[in-house]
Amino acid sequence: MLPCEGMFVATAILVLLGGCRGLDSVPIIAGDHCAPDRDATVGCTRDGDTIELEACGGEALRLLGIDSPEIAHDSTEVDQCFGPEAAAWMEDRLLGVDVRLEFDATCADTYGRTLAYVWALEADGTETLVNEEIVREGYARVFEDFDDIRLADRLYAAQADAQSVNAGLWATCE
């Protein structure tokens, strides 16, 4: 069987089962993505790299490829250097904002949080990659425990920019 024959057969079956109109609802995922892009609204922020979608207590989402300093979530924990500043930045930037979620090869972490690139939908119709923005501003660093980060080059470039001007945690914590 030729490589395209299987795809032709699968497409033919979809057309037969759902008609041509049914193909409009079939998600097309280019590359090795674990899920199609989707839109959401940020309902809550937990810290500098984790948000909750739609409402507080909603779906927990960790921004893919970044790691911000931790904040104390109870009296037994202690804030890491620049953790409260990173959490405040995330809340100011994303609380109540409409976003587009873009996925990579891994869709969830070991804590059950969704992993995604978060694109803020700006008033002028443009989109900003928040994962990159928070690193460039110095409130987070590149998270290096994943080897399947498609946008790693962008994140590392943002980190180099932050380091070169001692932005945020690079001036205070390093």
Task: Produce the secondary structure layout.
Blueprint: H1 3-22, E1 38-45, E2 50-53, E3 60-63, E4 66-67, H2 83-94, E5 98-102, E6 114-121, E7 127-129, H3 130-136, E8 141-142, H4 152-164, H5 169-172
Parallel strand pairs: 3-6
Antiparallel strand pairs: 1-2, 1-5, 2-3, 4-8, 5-6, 6-7
Helix pairs in contact: 3-4
Structure description:
By secondary structure, this protein is of the alpha+beta class. The protein has two domains: 28 residues, no CATH class; 142 residues, Beta Barrel (OB fold (Dihydrolipoamide Acetyltransferase, E2P)). It is built from five helices and eight strands. Strands 1-2-3-6-5 form a five-stranded mixed β-barrel. Strand 6 and strand 7 form a beta hairpin. The longest helix has 20 residues. 31% of the residues are buried. The N terminus is likely disordered.
Shape: globular
Q: How much beta, percentage-wise?
A: 15-25%
CATH topology of the largest domain, by name, is OB fold (Dihydrolipoamide Acetyltransferase, E2P)
Q: Mind telling me the C-alpha Rg?
A: 19 Å
How many DSSP E strands? 8
> Major sheet: order of its strands?
1-2-3-6-5
